[in-house]
């Protein structure tokens, strides 16, 4: 602590008013208390703080009565130290506010005034620091919740990996070495499974399959996906498998997920033929209002119900049998390619959005749910197709002719394949702009001036965008600011 060397000379002959001005300017709040701890005078630098503390009711009241219960021992210590002329210490005091149960954090230090039985308590407003601490605690709790969800998700996927009946391996994409194997893959490789970790994946196959496996891994690493290949294991019985691979990234590490499917025996390679005699279940499927189609691995139709024939503008089922589903999908088959890829990889797909076009050009917005079913040793695919044209709609215009922007990414993705790319880009820009404005308003507790500064906009521009996206409650004052 360093005190003034010559206060009599440097400060001059200060009167009471000058002293009061100095005290008031030195702190956010200053209290003058007597030896008994009764408030004899006070000063507050901020009108907002004065209203919140209701300081007008403090005259003649003990300081202890204006603070919360846990702060009373600290007030007593401040008054005691000031009376004893001890070195001033700063203490955190919670002053009671006008609202019931609320309090304002103030950092106080008290000093004795000359020979008079008076002490001055200098206070610093800690509300900003308290708000920052609260936000830090909320952020920490959010991180802890996210971490817990991440651990739970990791546990679930780890359990699925271990319980999968299919042989599954995880490879390092850079070195093509085995990083993990599930129990099904360990049983498949037999004794060599203990030594599989860290070894090149291609070594698990015979020499004649090395080129195909290397081509698969190289294609996945270069393009993110590649066609499945057939390969034989380097075990005694040399079983043949279909090898499928996909790329994924985790913790800045690129890995390859590899799955192995047994190749059916030669007698099972005949074309799939559905039984002519319909069961009760098949009769029910035939009469449902949603389209239902069964295809082979090549996506060619084996059977279709009446609802699908109506969507495709076909008269009889024979017109659909043997044709590829690509014939009735828009976007030059891109939708079907994405759907079939997901179906082969996951085994099932739910609520896939697409557009189905009939023989005579009628377009129908549909949602497709599909599943893979083994039949005679070979997979076939079942597609449930629902007409959702009445439920989905493109961006509309308001009564005054202005375009109403989309409100979510989900709505934006529904437009893919039905709206030109340049319109999609414009809609995506609007969605991103709206999300950024909402995030800025949330971070600033709806303080629009601060949100505009955070976004690098003028207040007038922000009000225009708020009105455009229908955000917030724009009153007359806001409307006037936006029109300036």
In short, what is this structure?
It contains 15 helices and 15 strands.
CATH-defined superfamily of the largest domain = PAS domain
Total helical elements: 15
| CATH domain class name of the largest domain | Alpha Beta
Helix content: 25-40%
Percent range for β-strand residues: 15-25%
Could you state the order of secondary-structure elements as H and E? HHEEHHEEEHEEHHEEEHEEHHEEEHHHHH
- Averaged pLDDT: 77
Alpha carbon gap, first and last residue: 54 Å
**CATH topology (level 3) name of the largest domain:** Beta-Lactamase
Strand arrangement in the largest pleated sheet: 2-1-5-4-3
The structure class reads alpha+beta
Number of structural domains: 5
Overall CATH architecture of the largest domain: 2-Layer Sandwich
Q: Report on the biggest sheet.
A: 5 strands, antiparallel
Shape: elongated
Low-pLDDT parts are: 267-278, 392-404, 479-484
**Rg estimate, integer Å:** 37 Å
Query: How many strand units?
Result: 15
């Amino acid at each position: 602590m360093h005190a003034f060397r010559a206060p009599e000379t440097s400060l001059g002959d200060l009167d009471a008013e000058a002293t009061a001005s100095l005290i008031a300017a030195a702190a956010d709040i200053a209290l003058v208390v007597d030896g008994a701890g009764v408030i004899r005078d006070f000063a507050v630098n901020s009108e907002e703080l004065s209203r919140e503390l209701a300081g007008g009711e403090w005259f003649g009241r003990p300081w202890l009565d204006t603070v919360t219960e846990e702060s009373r021992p600290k007030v007593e210590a401040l008054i005691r130290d000031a009376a004893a002329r001890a070195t001033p210490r700063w203490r955190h005091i919670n002053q009671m506010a006008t609202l019931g149960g609320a309090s304002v954090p103030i950092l106080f230090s008290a000093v004795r005034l000359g020979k008079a039985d008076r002490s001055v308590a200098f206070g610093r407003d800690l509300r900003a620091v308290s708000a920052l601490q609260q936000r830090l605690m909320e952020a920490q709790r959010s991180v802890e919740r996210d971490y817990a969800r991440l651990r739970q998700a990791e546990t679930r996927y780890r359990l699925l990996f271990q319980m999968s009946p299919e042989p599954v391996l995880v490879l390092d994409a850079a070195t093509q070495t085995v990083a993990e194997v599930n129990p099904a893959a360990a049983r498949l490789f037999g004794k060599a499974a203990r030594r599989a970790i860290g070894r090149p994946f291609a070594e698990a196959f015979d020499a004649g399959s090395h080129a195909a496996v290397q081509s698969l891994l190289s294609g996945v690493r270069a393009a993110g996906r590649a066609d499945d290949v057939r390969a034989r294991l380097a075990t005694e019985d040399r079983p043949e498998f279909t090898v499928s691979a996909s790329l994924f990234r985790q913790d800045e590490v690129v890995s390859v997920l590899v799955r192995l499917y047994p190749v059916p025996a030669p007698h099972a390679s005949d074309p799939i033929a559905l039984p002519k005699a319909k069961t009760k279940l098949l009769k029910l499927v035939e009469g449902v209002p949603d389209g239902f189609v069964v295809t082979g691995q090549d996506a060619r139709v084996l059977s279709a119900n009446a609802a699908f024939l109506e969507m495709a503008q076909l008269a009889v089922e024979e017109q659909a049998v043997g044709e590829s589903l690509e014939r009735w999908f828009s976007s030059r088959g891109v939708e079907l390619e994405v759907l079939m890829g997901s179906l082969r990889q996951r085994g099932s797909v739910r609520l896939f959005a697409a557009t189905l076009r009939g023989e005579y050009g009628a377009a129908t917005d549909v949602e497709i749910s599909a599943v893979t079913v083994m039949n005679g040793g070979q997979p076939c695919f079942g597609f449930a197709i629902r007409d959702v044209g009445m439920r989905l709609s493109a961006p509309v215009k308001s009564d005054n002719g202005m375009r109403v922007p989309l409100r979510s990414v989900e709505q934006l993705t529904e437009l893919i394949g039905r709206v030109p790319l340049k319109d999609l880009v414009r809609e995506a820009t609007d969605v991103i702009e709206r999300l950024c404005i909402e995030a800025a308003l949330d971070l600033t507790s709806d303080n629009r001036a601060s949100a505009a500064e955070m976004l690098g906009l003028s207040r007038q521009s922000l009000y225009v965008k708020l009105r455009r996206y229908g955000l917030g409650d724009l009153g007359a004052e806001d409307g006037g600011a936006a029109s300036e």
